[in-house]
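#struct-pred
JK: can someone run the complex with BV8? inputs below
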Amino acid sequence: MKKIVILTGAGISAESGLGTFRDKDGVWSQYDLEEVATPEGFFRNPEKVHHFYNMRRANAMAAQPNAAHDALARLERDWPGQVILVTQNIDDLHERAGHQRVIHMHGELMEAKCAACDAHWPAPERMRASDPCPECGELSTRPDIVWFGEIPYDMDLIEKHLTQCDVFASVGTSGQVYPAAGFVLQANAMGAHTVELNLEPSELSGMFEERHEGPASEIVPDWVEALLSRP
Ligand code: BV8
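RT: done, structure tokens with the ligand placed:
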């Protein structure tokens, strides 16, 4: 039975009210990426970075999954083959929609870690630079999020899935951030059928054999329904 690998980006959470990054009035038009999403920015001003992620954590906690998150959870449950979900998003809306296995390649808002001893624990609602690590006591706690210039999580696992997939679908991503933006190239090289579901054409649209354009809450449930009606 066909194995499906899905990559999601900020666009799948847009209709849940969580801002995307590069659309008009996106996050990176309001905040300087270098200051809040790089290790250098964190080193320079940890309080500013904690404030940025405390705000995004509060927004994510107040948001609800939308029909696109629900549809992917349904696909994972009802598809007779393997469904692997890789997300660039750090919110937990896939999980709250009932998705069982989510690979968060850019980390998670709801997780914290220690930059000194690498301990991991559930993030409190508000993190502060003055919070000592619960394990080693160092003042080096940080959000468990992959910043620019840092190595994304689970790359070996993701590469393995990409070599085995029959279908690769990309949902709600502009295809500007690597290595995630390179996944469609690998899927194509492996002969997988590639599908893009996005509000508008992305940087990589030409790489996809099949494209659906529109809001994720509409086109993703339609795509899942079509898949399940002819497994
Ligand atoms: C790495 C966590 C090495 C933070 C993120 C030059 C200099 C320095 C670095 C680089 C360079 N060139 C390339 C790099 C590497 C760099 C990179 O790619 N930079 C880009 C900006 C050029 N990448 C890295 O540094 C990565 N690490 O390369 O390490 C390595 C590589 C491979 C193997 C080993 C080692 C680390 C990148 C991770 C950074 N952290 N997130 C946070 O979230 O705060 S990435 C950040 O961008 C977000 O997490 C986001 O998820 C991600 C991707 O953005 P999108 O999800 O695509 O969001 P965007 O707004 O761009 O697009 C939204 C899309 O949705 C649009 O297309 C829109 O049309 C659509 N949409 C909107 N509404 C809807 C919709 N679609 C459907 N329905 C709707 N309603």
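RT: quick notes.
The pocket of BV8 is lined by residues 9-11, 14-15, 20-23, 26, 37, 88-90, 106, 145-152, 155, 172-174, 176-179, 198-200, 202, 215-216 (CB under 6 Å).
The chain has two domains: 1-17+65-106+153-231, 19-62+109-145.
JK: thanks, will look after standup
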